[in-house]
Amino acid sequence: MISLRTFAYLRVSTADQTTDNQLHEIVGAGFHIEPHRATTETISGSVAAMERQGFKKLMDRMEAGDVLIVTKLDRLGRNAMDVRATVERLDRMGVKVHCLALGGVDLTSPAGRMTMAVISAVSEMERDLLIERTRAGLQRAKAQGKKLGRKPKLTADDRSKIMALKAEGASLAVLAKQFGVSRSAIQHVARQEKLA
Question: Which DSSP symbol is given to 13?
Fold first, then answer.
């Protein structure tokens, strides 16, 4: 016999956030969630769903006929491909996935799959446009003669002082502390000066 249990996946990105509003929204939409069937997790949405400890445990608990509720698609993940793969995996298990922000549509249904395809296409287009704009901006900045990248922590004068102090026998640790950089930054200066 097929079970009919409802689970909720509630995720926030940082410890100063709470999942309370997500649970209230799910209950407000008419779903009854037993406390032991609500999985809460504090982890970035950029981490793939199957790499999250809480979500993996949730996957192990669900079976055919179960329903998983999320308030928004980004609770499952921010990467459209990962979200799609997660929904497809749940569909193969016989688990329905309802997203409240999308009108409560079951993402495993034909209408849900179409919604997912549209969202994936839009996400991919947005990513491509962002890459295109970034490249154009970098090319424009280079053409205008702007220096790209971070401003170096050590000035040319600092580098000369470091080499002089190093020649006098100053240790890497002492130089790093004096100039407020890492030991490897001091080593990098020494290597560059030797090549110059």
Answer: S
One-letter amino acid for residue 131 of the chain: I
DSSP 8-state assignment for residue 83: H
The tokens for 183 are 């030991």
For the segment 72-110, what is each residue's pLDDT rounded down to a tens digit?
988 988 777 888 889 999 999 999 999 998 888 899 999
The answer to whether 123 is a known catalytic residue is no
What is the Cα–Cα distance from 50 to 84, expressed in whole angstroms? Answer: 12
Answer yes or no: are the C-beta atoms of 35 and 61 closer than 8 Å.
Answer: no
Kindly write down the DSSP assignment for every residue of 122-188, as one continuous string: HHHHHHHHHHHHHHHHHHHHHHTTPPPSPPPSS-HHHHHHHHHHHHTT--HHHHHHHHTS-HHHHHH
Mean pLDDT, range 155-161, rounded to an integer: 88
Q: Identify the three-state secondary structure at position 68.
A: strand
- Separation CA 150–CA 13 (nearest Å): 28
Q: Which of 3, 13, 123, 171 is catalytic?
A: 13
Residues 34-45 pLDDT 10s: 999 999 999 998
> Beta-strand (E) ranges in 2-115?
6-12, 38-42, 67-70, 96-99, 105-106
